[in-house]
UniProtKB/TrEMBL annotation:
Protein species of origin: Streptomyces plumbiresistens
Upper taxonomic lineage: Bacteria, Bacillati, Actinomycetota, Actinomycetes, Kitasatosporales
Domain PspA-associated: 1-92
Record-given protein name: PspA-associated domain-containing protein
Length: 92
């Protein structure tokens, strides 16, 4: 799966990592629903860090279609709300 972090680039991520990432995504969704700004910021950073850790960066000149688009590290709670589906940022 190709994942784009807005403002950073793309990584190739094995589908087997989605379960682990979904746990952080669920936590992020709860924090957003509760209006927990500091928790939201902390969990968003943790989610993006995990994607960077588990994924293999694609070259900057590579323009693969992204199957998943994640917000930039400095995205606001409101900006992330606009990207959400019923499942959160990560489907499943």
């Amino acid at each position: 799966m190709i994942v784009r972090i807005m403002g950073e680039g793309q990584v190739r991520l094995a589908d087997s990592h989605l379960t682990e990432l979904n746990k952080l995504d669920d936590e992020l969704l709860r924090e957003m629903e509760n209006g927990d700004g500091p928790g939201f910021r902390r969990t968003l950073q943790a989610l993006l860090a995990k994607v960077r850790e588990l994924g293999d960066p694609l070259p900057d000149d590579s323009l693969e279609p992204s199957e998943l688009i994640l917000p930039s590290p400095d995205a606001t709670l409101e900006e992330v709300r606009e990207l959400l589906s019923d499942d959160g940022l990560i489907p499943g």
